[in-house]
Amino acid sequence: MNLIGEHTDYNGGFVLPIAIDRTCVVAAAPARHETYCHVYAAGLDRMWVYPRGRSLMEMLNKPEFFPRGGWESYVAGVLHFVGQSAGKRADLDLVIASDVPFGSGLSSSASLEVAVAAAVLHPTGMDKIQMALLCQRAEHEFAGVPCGIMDPFISAMGRRDHALLIDCQSYQARPVPMPPDVTVVIANSGVRHALAGGEYAVRKAGCVAAAQKLGIKSLREGKLNVLGIPSLTEQERGFARHVISEIARTQQAAAALEGGNMSRFGQLMNESHASLRDDYEVSCPELDTLVELATECPGVWGARMTGGGFGGCIVALAERDALEGLMGVLKRGYKAKHSRECEVFATRASDGVRSVGF
User: Fold this and answer.
1) DSSP annotation string for 64-132
2) Mean pLDDT of the chain
3) First to last CA, the chain
4) Which helix (H) or strand (E) holds 25?
5) How far is residue 217's CA from residue 323's CA, in Å, rounded to a whole number?
6) C-beta separation of 328 from 217 below 8 A
7) How far apart are CA 298 and CA 145, in angstroms?
């Protein structure tokens, strides 16, 4: 879950995520059937069966094997690229169980990919940065989502009681301690987002186009004072303004967190949400309602949407004593305005992937 730094990872910028205390577990064993491998998703009660000895890449655009963008495609992509990295394909039966909400902006796809990769590679293992890059490639080529590196990186590299300031250009990461008196609260709007649907790709393409017109390699190199050039469309200008300002906000937020300046951190979170809503246009009325409710609640430093947008969750940082009141305000206020329930829970920064042998 990203504290701040949204839609900056695929622009070579900085992000500040944590790995939350929700879990995706994958159990792997050699395939028992002579002809097929079986992958069972326990939460969905669905089985995917694919033939042994056949290239998963060849199956990519054949919906009779798996739908592109479906959960099966994330698993297939990881199996394919893990096989490439190991020099041979692993024919395995897998069982998957997860309590990470789907489509909520909490990196359910990355948690699945990284868990599958770790299970397949156990006990030999792999450098965790390389694992994250492999999972990102799987999501690009098999699921059709042109995601950045942040989600698989934090799923692989998360550290207990720390956020991770990640430079998405160099892949260097610095742990930033979370103050012990800070509570991280997540509110799930219940609005599902589907990043493979095209809006994510539109924004990524807009950022690339804006960078080209500005004469820079990526918006990481951009400055706000150059956004007045007439060749930029208004949409490209908004995209670039968000990314450039968000990269700066993320670095400032990491410094504020290290210094225990939660008022400043909260201010930056609020500014981030406004930018995502107005310039990047990835918020929605439900997310805006939750952010407004949270920021008006006593003891809350700041709140913003988190994840790709178009639904999903918000994150708020609050004093410990404010938790019960905040949860009540969010649940009651959201139901009153949108006539639907809102799941609200506290979380903490946790470790990333690990392998468990039996």
Assistant:
1) TT--TTSHHHHHHHHHHHHHHHHTS---EEEEEEE-SPTTSSS-HHHHHHHHHHHHHHTTT---HHHHH
2) 92
3) 29
4) strand 24-30
5) 43
6) no
7) 38
Report strand pairing: 300-306 vs 343-347. unpaired
Tokens of 324: 């019960």
Strands (E), 255-333: 300-306, 313-319
In the DSSP assignment, the letter for residue 142 is I
* Whether 134 contacts 115, CB under 8 Å: no
| Residue from 127, 151, 288, 321 carrying the catalytic annotation | 151
Instruction: Show Cβ contacts of residue 147 under 8 Å, excluding neighbours closer than 6 positions.
Output: 9, 10, 110, 136, 139, 140, 195, 200
Domains of the chain as residue ranges with CATH: 2-17+166-347 (3.30.70.890), 24-157 (3.30.230.10)
How far apart CA 208 and CA 239 sit, in angstroms, is: 10
Please tell me whether the peptide bond between 30 and the residue prior to it is cis, using omega within 30 degrees of 0. no
Cβ–Cβ under 8 Å, residues 219 and 213: no
Q: Is 181 a catalytic residue?
A: no
pLDDT of residue 197: 56
- 203-251 pLDDT per residue, tens: 999 999 999 999 999 999 999 998 999 999 999 999 999 999 999 999 9
The residues, any chain, with a CB within 8 Å of residue 45's CB and separated by 6 or more, are none
Model-wide pTM > 0.85: yes
Q: Which residues pair with 49 in a beta bridge?
A: 38
> Could you tell me the CA-to-CA distances from 172 to 168, 248, 267 in Å, in that order?
7, 17, 26
